[in-house]
Amino acid sequence: MPLTRAATQAALRLGAVALAGSLLAACGSGASDTAADKPGGKVTVTVDLFGSFGYKEAGLYAEYEKLHPNVTIKQTDTEDEADYWKSLQTRLAGGGGLADVQGIEVGRIASVTQQQADRFEDLRKYGADGLKDQFADAKWAAATGKGGEVLGLGTDVGPEAMCYRTDLFKQAGLPTDRAELAEKWSTWDGYLELGKQYKAKAPAKSAWLDSVGSLFSIMIGQEKERYYDASGALIWETNPALKSAWETSVKATQADLSAKLDQWSPQWNQAFAAGSFATIPCPAWMLGYIKGQAGETGKGKWDIAKLPGGAGNWGGSYLAVPRAAKNKKEAYELIKWLTAPEQQAKIFAKQGNFPSSTGAIAEVSGTTDPYFSGAPIGQIFGDAAKAAPVQVLGVHDQNINQQITNALSEVERKGLAPEKAWENAKKGVANTLG
């Protein structure tokens, strides 16, 4: 989440992503945006992100530009993080077309620290080592290279909860009280059972959840070891926790509880406003995304309850400065400000992205959200953040997750036998890892 970890975050897909890549290359490598070409020391700091980090929406760019009249911030976005990462790898390899600030999803940060440290600025040279005490230990450590390099500053984390549509629950005769629901779906089996009750009386064209891919991702976020163990060895094929998440996702498909939507697709985006699903596993960064897609008509129809099965984390991100950036010092000053406790607290209040700054976490503990029926989001996500395991991060976490969710989509949308889909996932991971 995150994440968002992410709300976190708008939309460019498929062919539009390719176009965006060329546009990014044009604006990132062009000399017209560098300080040397701006009269009076004017600087345009370029920021390239995925999903919905929420800076523009929360007014933080405008606030920063007011505080720094010589700085203009230009942001570009790719909605799908997988598309974003692929484009970023191409540009890192070529050394051109990079923005001054690049977002890095937590599932990719091990790749940066272990394999690409030479392509990003060590932020210690700008004084970042003095910021360590502002961040949760695990958040800071994950972006630290083998030689102690500070390769990114943490934005949000992705503590998990369950978002649900109270109006659809009422129509299906289900309770809407968040405490009662948390008790009824304290386990994932309980969640599926409630889904079957919903399905029996659901409004037309409305499913229990958006996709089994999101179900798998939220469940695996509850585990300390997922794809790698603490020694760095791949364990995903034999990890019982992962197999349990897979099997629960398959059960949801077999019970026909899913709307069968690919996350981040145009159809998925439209489904938020259309009421195509009643629940969605939501890391904190998803709140801003829901608001953006469901719009004003969704205000007061959504609520948030504790997640089945215990606390977990899905997503969260970092801001990094590539070595090929045009305005490195200005980029660092911007990300230092954006990730400071005060700004992280503002982002959470306005967008839902849960802070990784320890000072901000304490500040937002009493936050409620009127869009989500006044839900005590500071308490819900704060409790989840405290209880979530410190996850073992591996170089290919995100790639492995993508192959597994792709395979689940084959079960969900094409009716492929789960055993065959699992074999396809294994082949996909093998191809991804080379």
Summarize the structure.
This protein is α/β, with parallel strands linked by helices and 434 residues long. The chain has helices at 14-29, 60-67, 81-94, 109-115, 137-142, 166-171, 178-184, 188-201, 212-220, 240-254, 266-274, 286-294, 328-338, 341-351, 358-363, 377-387, 397-414, 418-433, and strands at 43-50, 71-78, 101-105, 153-165, 207-209, 277-283, 302-305, 313-320, 354-355.
What does it look like?
Helix content is 44%, strand content 13%. With 434 residues, it is an alpha/beta fold. Strands 1, 2, 3, 4, 5, 6, 7, 8 and 9 form a 9-stranded mixed sheet that branches. The protein is globular and about 65 Å long. It starts with 13 loop residues before the first helix and ends with a helix. Keywords: Signal. This is Sugar-binding protein.
Observed structural traits:
single chain, 434 residues, alpha/beta, 18 helices, 9 strands, globular
Structural class: alpha/beta
Count of beta strands: 9
The rough form would be described as globular
Spell the H/E element sequence.
HEHEHEHHEHHHEHHHEHEEHHEHHHH
Mean pLDDT: 91
Q: Roughly what fraction of the amino acids lie in strands? A: 5-15%
Low-confidence stretches: 1-39
Helix content: 40-55%
Described by strand count, sense and barrel closure, the largest sheet is: 9 strands, mixed
| Number of continuous helical runs | 18
Distance between the termini: 28 Å
Q: What value does the Rg take, in angstroms?
A: 21 Å
